[in-house]
Amino acid sequence: MSLKKALLGALALALSCGTAARAESLETFRVGILGGENEADSLRNYQCLADKLPAAIGVKEVKLFPATDYDGVIQGLLGGTLDYAELGASGYAKIYLANADAVEPILTTVQTDGSKGYYSIMVARKDSGIKTLADMKGKKLGFADPDSTSGYLIPVTSLPKDLNNVAVKDFFGETGFGGGHENLVLAVKDGKFDAGTTFGSGVGNFDEGYTSGNLHKMVAKGMIDMKDFVELWKSPLIPNGPIVIRTALDTDLKAKFKQFMVDLPKTDPACFSAIQGGDFTSYTEVTPAFYQPIIDARKAQIGG
């Protein structure tokens, strides 16, 4: 082999390696939005990100993709058709168990009391006569979504400890899914379920739906009055879900995105509150290790 060919070969190899090593860049940044809230409200709440992110991270546009359920966002992240989403811990666990390298959990929220967690909360209609968890024996319990942490995974795994080690399927007469947190609470309100599991910060007043979470958002939108409901059960603290970003994206873009989000509570508190659905103080860094207990619970309960 001539020296010229050897040099050209070495150059080609170097260029090839450089291309492989360089993470994926893009012109359109695609945002996945979990199902559970009606689409118009989801798009309205996230529009501030669509307006601000292009200049902040160096892309031409940001597109919002609200899903009808949790799995739509999960599959989009696994398939590379979405670049960022805010997930529940169980949703992240599902992705991790399918492909641990698909996304990176980078941030989570901090509650107003400084905690990095929230609660699964079971509610029933106050006029139903159901006042305690024991009163639900043989009755119909609604879950939010099969991939919801607070709306399914944690209740299924934690409730038996408060039911004298009786499994959920043996204690309740019937269970079902409400099609997201918002629809579930409305189904409880309409009497389709005797009680249902949703989520809240557990901080502040129950009459206000606490300081953040699905109940708080529904109260703020005038969809429910908490005086019509009673709390039957509250779970142990659940790790706040992660902001995840697709691992294959350009390193510089990921760094700019993370910094934008870290700064958001100060640069645009209204936008921060809108996308989070309530009152939080800030974001804080997380790694996969923060979610290992949920990953283990999902693997044991659901198998992925």
Automatic annotation (TrEMBL):
Keywords assigned by UniProt, alphabetized: Signal
Transmembrane regions: none
GO biological processes: organic phosphonate transport; transmembrane transport
GO cellular component: ATP-binding cassette (ABC) transporter complex
InterPro entries membership: PhnD (IPR005770), Phosphnate-bd (IPR017797)
Pfam assignment, any one: Phosphonate-bd
Gene3D superfamilies hit by this protein: Periplasmic binding protein-like II
Residues annotated as signal peptide: 1-23
Signal recorded as keyword: yes
UniProt entry tagged with the keyword Secreted: no
CDD domains (alphabetical): PBP2_PhnD_like (cd01071)
Domain of life of the native organism: Bacteria
Protein family: Belongs to the phosphate/phosphite/phosphonate binding protein family.
The protein's name: Phosphonate ABC transporter substrate-binding protein
Species name: Pseudaminobacter soli
Gene from which the chain derives: phnD
